[in-house]
Design goal:
Pfam families: AAA_5 (PF07728). The chain has about 290 residues and is an alpha/beta fold. Helices cover about 50% and strands about 15% of the residues. The protein folds into 2 domains: about 5-75 and about 110-190, Rossmann fold, CATH 3.40.50; about 195-280.
């Protein structure tokens, strides 16, 4: 039975993932309806981690397809093992035998999508950063996303006995096609509100004092309101907290430790200069 949003929130929190009501509802509906879940949001807000946590909660294998420019169907769906086919032919010829059909299961290389379809117990399939793939690649996904099946010309249509849980992520570097979006349940993951970010820090940075966490969260929230080229996500705020804490343990005062560890929060020279120009406001009560 699919857990409800509240039960799902508790299960996610048990794995160290603090999701808001909107995300919990989206994940619940995707599981209940068997729809792929398309998550968009800025880098570092926890999109990829959703698939990892679902894998741990369900006990299903996590299969990851990392998208990139030039990704083709062979790398994502399946390929034929040509060296193995050639070796088979040579061995058959040396024995004076007919090599037979070279396009059968034993010569098939299962790539992530086919592995997900063939997983007997089901799987969690993460199609990460789909916006980095070429437009043409999306067309290869439509049959799989719509029907949980793959067509292999030499073998026919392969359908999933147990449909996988599919999570797609996008940083929105380009607009995705409507045909792909129609096959998915969509959710935008926003930056966390202060209370949820404090909870994340408490769970991921053991030993961080409550007062220090409050000050850091206030500073991060102010930084995100600046017109930066890349606003820091949750991952960066966690690393910033760890770095500043390490400096504080070495004797640095907390506000100064935060300033010295800025390289863990901001990853662009222009953004660094902009932030330093607003340092007095950002760190006023950090």
């Amino acid at each position: 039975m699919t857990p409800g949003p509240r039960e799902l929130a508790a299960a996610l929190e048990g794995e160290g993932y603090f999701a808001d009501e909107g995300l919990c509802t989206a994940v619940h509906l995707a599981l209940r309806l068997g729809r792929p879940l398309l998550l968009e949001g800025e880098p570092g807000v926890g999109k990829t981690e959703v698939a990892s946590v679902l894998s741990r909660i369900t006990g299903l294998e996590l299969i990851r397809l990392q998208c990139f420019e030039g990704l083709d169907s062979g790398q994502a769906l399946y390929e034929w093992d040509h060296p193995k086919q050639l070796l088979h032919v040579r061995v058959a010829e040396s024995r004076g035998e007919d090599p037979g059909d070279l396009y059968r299961e034993e010569f098939l290389l299962r790539r992530p999508l086919l592995r997900a379809v063939r997983a007997e117990q089901g799987a969690v399939l993460l199609i990460d950063e789909i916006d980095r793939a070429d437009n043409e690649f999306e067309a290869f996904l439509l049959e799989f996303l719509g029907d949980h099946q793959i067509t292999i010309p030499e073998l026919g249509t392969v359908r999933a006995g147990t449909p996988p849980i599919v999570v797609l992520t996008s940083n929105r570097t380009r607009e995705l096609h409507d045909a792909l979006k129609r096959r998915c349940l969509y959710h935008w993951i926003a930056f966390p509100e202060p209370g949820r970010e404090r909870a994340i820090l408490r769970a991921t940075v053991p030993g961080l004092e409550e007062r220090a966490a409050d000050g850091l969260v206030r500073a991060v929230q102010r930084v995100r309101r600046l017109p930066l080229l890349k606003r820091p996500g949750i991952a960066e705020s966690v690393e910033w907290a760890r770095g500043a804490m390490a400096l504080a343990e070495g004797g640095e005062p907390w506000p100064l430790a935060l300033r010295k560890a800025l390289g863990l929060l901001i990853k662009d020279e222009e953004d660094t200069r902009l932030l330093l120009g607003h340092a007095e406001d950002v760190f006023s009560d950090a």
